[in-house]
Amino acid sequence: MLFKGGGKLHKGDIGRLVSSVGGEYNGFTSKDFTAYFEILPADQLDIGLLIESERMMNAAFDPREVETERTVVVSEREGNENDPEFLVNEELFLSAFRFHPYRWSEGGLKEDLLRITRDNLFDHYRQFYVPSNAILVVVGPYSPSKVMTKLESYFGPLESSTKPLSLGSQSLPRTVRGVSSYTCPQRPITSRSHTTRPPSEAATCIH
Question: Which residues touch 128 (CB under 8 Å, ≥6 apart)?
């Protein structure tokens, strides 16, 4: 959903902007973070900063696009289920990490993919896609002062926020495949962060 435009960017603009200068772009998710990147000519830094600042706060989450993407993701999931290694690996994590967020597949369980709503997705986006929960990396022939000036221009106007979520008040995981639910006790959380599944989760509920 975060490649679909919003704010100053319309659907397809990310690809058009990056391709117009011969660049590349993509994204990926691990159990600790989600990353997005652009590889651009050194004099096109503004394109990357525009894309990422709009992605952080203005993604559209058009309900029609949500349903389209649901079909795509479920289809990918069903394809993976034809691979015994995928199934064994998923069961391994569900069994080995009984109370830890690492138990959840990055791509999601099929039952969750089928029932998650646009509002669920948007609420998650608003909670985790915030400046205080992100790390921006810029590599190239730039002076720190030049980069910081540009960062202030693009990201300074974005809504400030506190650290996203204290998992100490959350119940996790849900009851799935015979594993009982568990409420994590209150404890201090230190967030060091990127978007989605903040690394603070990795320090929580280890038993």
Answer: 164, 165, 195, 196, 197, 198
CA distance 160 to 146: 22
Give dist(CA 76, CA 193) in Å, integer. Answer: 28
**Residue range 92-101, pLDDT digits in tens:** 999 999 899 9
In whole angstroms, give the CA distance from residue 131 to residue 127.
Answer: 11
Class of domain 13-203: alpha beta
Gap between the Cα atoms of 38 and 138, Å rounded: 10
Q: What's the N-to-C CA distance of the chain in angstroms?
A: 34
Angle between helices 118-128 and 63-80 (to 10 degrees): 90
| CA 34 – CA 25 distance, rounded (Å) | 14
Question: For 3-25, what is each residue's pLDDT tens digit?
Answer: 998 899 999 999 999 999 999 99
One-letter amino acid for residue 189 of the chain = I
- Domain assignments of the chain as residue spans, ordered by start: 13-203
Over the stretch 35-49, which tens digit does the pLDDT of each residue have? 999 999 999 999 999
